[in-house]
Amino acid sequence: MLTLARPAAPAHVVWALGVAQTVGWASSYYLPAVLAEPMAADLGLSPVWVFGAFSFAMVVSSLVGPWAGARIDRLGGRGVLALSNLVFAAGLAGLATSQGPVTLFLAWAVVGIGMGIGLYEAAFATLARIYGPAARSPITGITLIAGFASTVGWPLSGLMLAEWGWREACLGWAALHLALALPLNLSLPKGTQLGRSANPGAMADEGTTSPPRLALALLAFVFAATWFTSTAMAAHLPRLLEEAGATPAMALAAGALIGPAQVGARLLEFGLLRRFHPLLSARIAAACHPVAALILILVGGPAAAAFALIHGAGNGILTIAKGTLPLALFGPEGYGKRLGWLNAPARALQAGAPLIFGAALTAWGPEAVWITAGIGAASLAALLLLRRSGP
Questions:
Q1: If pLDDT is split at 50, 70 and 90, which confidence band does 200 have?
Q2: SS3 letters for 113-160?
Q3: What pTM was computed for the model?
């Protein structure tokens, strides 16, 4: 097969996809933090029902991800991403009109389909389909922009909640999908052929060779470990820091450092670290959470800011690695479907992370962080077993 040279990604592509991803993440992953309690109160339910429905949405997203990736491999990602905006809008409208637990779960399931076909995995696959091995830089670029999804999403959700109510806030996000994210996704290039061969269907079958199963298993474990830890920390970081001895004010201030730390680390990846193989970045990033946990256990509450900065930096780079590592290790052929399968266990495990870590925190206090530290150390070991390929 003759591989075609790929152009660098134009800035407008990165910005369009980055802004569309910001809308997608803000209106799904970051929505319950602001709307779960008023949603539950209005429906006469415990907030546990809302978070349970959200966990169900993440399971649904893990099931549809491989299908979306395979379709992007065949046809390019523009249509799939545009479809995700329509699905997101329908799911958010369903939330706005839900009247009880059944309609709540059904609406979140539709949002989950949107998450499975419209968030990072689909965006990464779209870029790999267009730019091939040169997709590493635009992947980093869109994570830099969408890294502000919580920074934008939480205040905007809060503003719409205060001005209109939670149902209208859901409709507001649905409108943003249709008026902003959908046109941006439709402006993307269609995608190009990965190469020319005598068999036009070869690409749809993930190329001529399959990656080693051990490498795929190791990478799937790394992604699952990363998602578990990042979701557990997102749900329980202030409480963990308070259990370790930080005051509530210190814990909140430290939590506010997570976003800047992620963006700063992604800038480092975009600048210095992109000169090296993505395995190096991933190994450094995987070591960050265990190091942060050790500092927190040894020092206690005064180390809250250090914990947040180190953990946030590692998490920021690992988010990029979910897109760049499979591309660098296995190449662009069949990338979308492969990425969907690699991330399916992670999405499913992510759904239970807040409950599992919350129970551990209740039982063991700050010592619960040894769970995520151990998972992080195991993911580092898995990355050390992987061997680089390609240039």
A1: very low
A2: HHHHHHCHHHHHHHHHHHHHHHHHHHHHHHHHHHCCHHHHHHHHHHHH
A3: 0.80
